[in-house]
Amino acid sequence: MAGDSNIAPVSTVTPRAADWSNRLNRIANLKTFHIPPVVVGNAADIKLGKSMVLEWQTEGMFQVACTPDVYTSSQLAFEASREFFARPTSEKLSYVSDLTFAGYIASGEELTAGEADSSEIFTLVKDLPLTDKRVQDGWPGHGPVPWPSSTFKEALQKYLRELGSIGDRLLQLISLGLGLQNLNALKSIANDGWHHARVLRYPPTSSQSSRGTGSHTDYGFLVIITQDDAGGLSIRPPINGEIRNRNWLPSESSDGMYEDSEEWNYVKPVRSTLVVFPGDMFQLLTDGTLLSTPHKVHLTQKERYSLAYFHEPNFQQIIKPFNNADSMDFVHYGEHVTNMFLRGYPERITSKRINHENRMDTLVKLKTKSISNFARMHNVRNR
Ligand SMILES: O=C(O)CCC(=O)C(=O)O
Ligand SMILES: [Fe+2]
């Protein structure tokens, strides 16, 4: 299990929020950071990490500049995704799997707060062969990705590997920015992480709808979005006094929250940059020092392609606020992510197989094991 992270309490960071007096519906004035090829924990890295944390706390996001290599990979990934989405719907619908949630999701199939989103999606998860022990042991959501072609597979896998390296370095910088003693405190939580991604295509706006994706927060750790030049993404920065739900609790979904209120920042596409913000697991881990960033997409005159990459904890990781050892608020990431997929796709063949084969029982066993490992490592009472 990941998570021997030797996490030290955060003491220096307090939540901050933007001053909204004069800034309704503004275009975000976003900082772009250049991240080093290796993070070593020197003064420059600490300064960079602190600036990133500050941006998240005031703006809810920051941008990362791509190196030329990463930019080229992103364009090849978009090219492959354009080729895939141009295929007939009947063919696209065949790329599903009853073992994993990877594969095609048609426009209108995904709901946010009960309303259909217009994006069509290809979900990518960790591509595990049938011989993998976790697949053989019936871990929910584990199995091979139903790749539509080798070109798509190669382009996407290459780009995801690059995003994975960026994700690890960002976690190191954020650890430093939060004042954690261990440079790898957050990165070790994402060791062999359950990283996944959504390749998205949005149609142009029509007389029926301008809704791309309804407002929501993402349920994981680090969210890294690549967008083309069509535009449409908005995010909601922290706002003083505004309630932010704990989306990991079934009773507190953040889907649809503040959808029609003001104070959204339009994220103008900037060539060769990535959009980076925290997901729900950051909010839980930092006890709200960092808030999961709500975001939504509206349709424009132009078709839009984007790729949302989620740099995630290990499937077996327990996530608990690290400055509050007694907190009863914790999740087993694997259970959490499985619940989120089941909530999102109750009718998918993958959900049906999980239920039919009682794979949630396997998950309960995995969770029990994780909790006792976590308790042993952190020397706290097993709850
Ligand atoms: O298309 C985008 O920019 C955002 C997509 C998104 O929010 C998601 O897939 O969760
Ligand atoms: Fe999202």
Explain what the structure shows.
InterPro entries: DIOX_N (IPR026992), IPNS-like_FE2OG_OXY (IPR044861), IPNS-like_sf (IPR027443), Iron_ascorbate_oxido_reductase (IPR050231), Oxoglu/Fe-dep_dioxygenase_dom (IPR005123). This is Fe2OG dioxygenase domain-containing protein. It is a single chain. The chain has 383 residues and is of the alpha+beta class. Strand 1, helix 1 and strand 2 form a beta-alpha-beta unit. The protein has an 8-stranded mixed sheet. A 4-stranded antiparallel sheet has the order 8-13-10-11, with no helix packed on it. Strands 4-5 form a two-stranded antiparallel sheet. The N terminus is likely disordered. The longest helix has 28 residues. The chain starts with 31 loop residues before the first strand and ends in a 5-residue tail after the last helix. Helices cover 32% and strands 17% of the residues. It has 10 helices and 16 strands. The radius of gyration is 20 Å and the shape is globular. The protein has a single domain, classed as B-lactam Antibiotic, Isopenicillin N Synthase, Chain (Jelly Rolls, Sandwich). 45% of the residues are buried. 2-oxoglutaric acid (AKG) binds next to strand 7, strand 9, strand 13 and strand 14.
Main beta sheet: strand number and arrangement? 8 strands, mixed
Q: Give the strand content.
A: 15-25%
Helical segment count: 10
CATH architecture: Sandwich
* Number of E-type strands: 16
Organism: Adineta ricciae (Rotifer)
GO molecular function, one term: oxidoreductase activity
Family: Belongs to the iron/ascorbate-dependent oxidoreductase family.
Protein name: Fe2OG dioxygenase domain-containing protein
